[in-house]
């Protein structure tokens, strides 16, 4: 199976961690009880460990990975089963804030690598407020960022040697959302507000999505859900 990645995609501050917690509890526990240890089962795509092969392949490029033009050349290579540590028939969940766009003619991902995705969308007015609270920017600066066609974000916790920071290409908020929604693979688009207000209903939608599209069989569903929403 060449399709090996199931993406958990969103614009920043839109509920990515919440949906990862739900998925981790559904897929990686017997009882649905969450722990931060199981959250490690769904890691960031741009994690520095996935960049080590570049150091061997081209040390000069490796030293310039803070340049998105350089990093984007390796996006698809980063998604190889060897680099992801997967055996034949296995798949993995990966978190990303990247838009599903090309950057200097480099595709972020494609149908050959992607099994499917969940995209979480949140009211951009609330995104802007949350984004501002978690940054050093003013609200006006955040809005300029969200409406910037070339906007990108780095991950502070993902700095590698020599202060190299891999970036994710965001583009504008609306372009980001559209880029994923138009991606023609099995997908489930969820509203952040529903995740908060209708969590049980959303969990059943997630379960039905995986059963319908991948014939995945969940066990102990009712007990798991009760623990997830507790």
Please summarize what this structure is.
The chain is an alpha/beta fold and 230 residues long.
Structure write-up:
This protein is an alpha/beta fold and 230 residues long. The chain has a single domain, classed as Rossmann fold. 40% of the residues lie in helices and 16% in strands. It contains twelve helices and nine strands. It has helices at residues 16-27, 36-39, 52-57, 59-62, 68-71, 81-84, 124-133, 139-146, 173-181, 192-197, 199-214, 221-229, and strands at 5-10, 43-44, 92-96, 102-103, 106-107, 114-121, 152-154, 167-169, 187-191. The strands form three sheets. A five-stranded parallel beta sheet has the order 2-3-1-6-9, with helices on both faces. A two-stranded antiparallel ribbon has the order 4-5. The chain has a two-stranded antiparallel ribbon with strand order 7-8. Strand 4 and strand 5 form a beta hairpin. Helix 7 (124-133) crosses helix 8 (139-146). The longest helix is centred in the C-terminal third of the chain and has 16 residues, at 199-214. The chain is globular. It starts with a strand and ends with a helix. The model has no long low-confidence stretch (mean pLDDT 93).
Oligomer: single chain
Number of strands: 9
Distance between the termini: 37 Å
What is the 3D form?
A: globular
User: Class, according to the CATH hierarchy?
Assistant: Alpha Beta
Task: State the CATH topology.
Answer: Rossmann fold
Number of helices: 12
The secondary structure category is alpha/beta
Provide the succession of SSEs.
EHHEHHHHEEEEHHEEHEHHH
